[in-house]
Amino acid sequence: MKQDRWKLYLKVLWGAVIALLVISSLIAGLLGDSNSLNAVLAGSVYVIINLGALTLLFIIVVRLKEWIEDRIASAAGQKSGAAGGELQMLRQSMERIEAKVDRIEKVLDGISE
């Protein structure tokens, strides 16, 4: 859901910028002055280039964040899996030691009688 939210924000941002640029171009066109229309179009190109660069930067940062979170999650999963394996090995070792202690107790009980 969070991934879809940032995509929605980008779409709304681009839509708002394009709408403002179209409205300003229409207003400049209605005024009939070619200098103001040229200025609006030059400003529009500048705004679109900057917004495109910021959008790419934003997408790169979000993807990098997702990649880092995935790497951390997989590393944590590996550590918990390794810890679970070590715990299982310790349990088996304890069971073997308990079995040996039981056998030793039986032998000592036989000797003392």
Task: Walk me through the structure.
It is rod-shaped, with a radius of gyration of 35 Å. Helix 1 (2-31) runs antiparallel to helix 2 (34-112). It has one domain. The chain contains two helices and no strands. With 113 residues, it is mainly alpha-helical.
SSE arrangement:
Elements: H1 2-31, H2 34-112
Measured as a percent range, the helix fraction is: over 70%
What's the tally of helices? 2
Rounded radius of gyration (Å): 35 Å
Class by SSE composition: mainly alpha
Q: How many β-strands, per DSSP?
A: 0
Unreliable residue stretches: none
Distance between the termini: 74 Å
Question: What's the helix-strand series?
Answer: HH
Summary, kept brief:
The protein has one domain.
Record keyword descriptors for this entry.
113 residues, mainly alpha, 0% strand, rod-shaped
